[in-house]
Amino acid sequence: MLDQPRKENRRKFFQTAAAGTALLTLAPGVRLVDLAVAKDDADEVTDNTRWGMLVDTSRCATDCDACVSACAKEHSIEDTGRPDTDAQWIRKVDLKDKKTGRELSLPLMCQHCDEPPCVDVCPTGASFKRADGIVLVDKHTCIGCRYCMMACPFDARSFIHEKLSNQRSYAPRGKGTVESCTFCVHRVDKDQAPACVEACAEEGHHALVFGDLNDKDSEISRSLAEKSTRELRPSLNLGTGALYHGL
Amino acid sequence: MLTYHTLQAGNRWYLVLTAIFTLVSILGFVAARYMEHEGHYVTGMTNQIVWGIPHVAAIFLILAASGVLNMASISSVFNVEDYKPLARLSGLLAITLLAGGLLILVLDLGRPDRLIVAMTTYNFRSIFAWNIFLYIGFAVVVLIYLWVIMDSRFSKYVKSVGAIAFSWRLILTTGTGSIFGFLVARDAYDTAIMAPLFIAHSLAIGTAIFILIASISCSLNEVRISTDLIRRFGRLLLWFVLAVAYMMTIHHLTNLYISGHYNVERFILKEGGIYTWLFWGGQVVLGYLVPIMLLVVGKTLIVPRVLFASVFTIMGALIQIYILIVGGQSYPLNIFPGYEVIGGWYASQPGNYFPTLPEFTLGFGGIAFALLITIIGLRVLPFLPSQFKRDSTVE
Description:
heterodimer; A: alpha+beta; Alpha-Beta Plaits; 4-stranded mixed beta sheet; two-stranded antiparallel sheet; 8 helices; 10 strands; globular; B: mainly alpha; Formate dehydrogenase/DMSO reductase fold; two-stranded antiparallel ribbon; 12 helices; about 70% helix
């Protein structure tokens, strides 16, 4: 709790210092207006909506990876046989409680933080958060420095190590840039659920609930009112959009 | 009256060194082009170890760049006249080593062709973006500094410009350390001591490199640096190595005290395999103990011992930076405290990193490029002194 005001002060300091530096610096291409106006690629996206995902680990089956397969199919993520360098937007993790021995399984992906460290550290602003909470990478300004991967607390980002083929027009990807789960933004913007959520429901597990956290009548809000949940790495105060039940 | 000369072109070693540096630089560019064309899968870097050998070489050069300027600062800012003959070389090396380091960083980018994006699109909340300004500003400030110390018309500005350059280098190294210090997600970093640690590191690396390069370039011109001056450099190096060892000790002891960071310490100090071996054998023994022994044992400090201490300091520093960058990433993120990961997530185990030839070639290529433009600089402008003060004592 004590960390929050300190964090706010730090952000204010950086914002003030940034504005001062911009005023003093006549570097080419520095746009002063950008400092005052948040980057927002889609005008109609507002913070009236806050997209989030509830992961109910009590419903997540250990031997099921439908969410991973659906994500790979949706975004044309191919297996090259090199797992260390292949992209992984979502992965299934099997856990065992060290004290009780209880075993559980859950999906791990970009947590779409309110205060995303990847966005903070990105030198060009390619990593950005939409007003509705979805964290994305602008593939046109990503220079492939991988600092966001160093900063991500959830190992959720992938660097594209080799040439890609069979790309989807709605989810462009590129060698030499970084990417991660987009919450299937192309589907969400058409009022559809992310591919992983749909696949989980089709398997009959219903372990993933996606929706607007700001809407009290949404399914996710009603589920959150009934179930105790927690963020991953809560000590970092990131305000993640993904919340886990049964962990 | 102090006079300066360019590097003599007739010397056989000048030609040999220039040829070697040119060849390795070209190989470095070829390696970078290969990595860009094929993609980074041809390197040992992965989605867990995202920064590897190129970053070790780049950080080493950037730290060295700010450290070598110390020699000029001692002369201009702290009025130590004995250092004045080598102030020009100090300034030149600050720029060339920085250029080599930045070149490696740029060529290792996933999209090096987007350098113009990096130079024109900034996120000022990123310490990385701040560093771009700090690096460019440093090069400009040092260029102005070189101008005022080489042009007698501006000699009255030497001290004030020198003070700005000195302050800038401290801020620059603070920025470089903060690249790691601000990484709250990783237990191996996330500490404010990274900034002073990097400053101490830069002073030790810079002094060691300066001792070697100054000795070699003066001998190419058949000018002998006074033994007194080398001894002074050696004593300075001793203090800087002690400072690095002290900061490192504090860093590890603090982490051992913090329960959340205990496991990362156990990894580096005891159970980390190659990283543990490198820490005790490379960083502590080669990097700290051997140079300290060479610099303190014996009645008089002789020149070869200072030179060897410099070599070991550089080796230890490279190993230390490797452990910091690669070892720090190898230690897995602790996303599920209280749970054992029994499947599905390969990065829950310490990451493996097997650097490949293109990475080494790029790293060495950047170092060779820095040395190549140094030797060209020495050849075209009078950076090297014609003589030094005579030794006060005869060995």
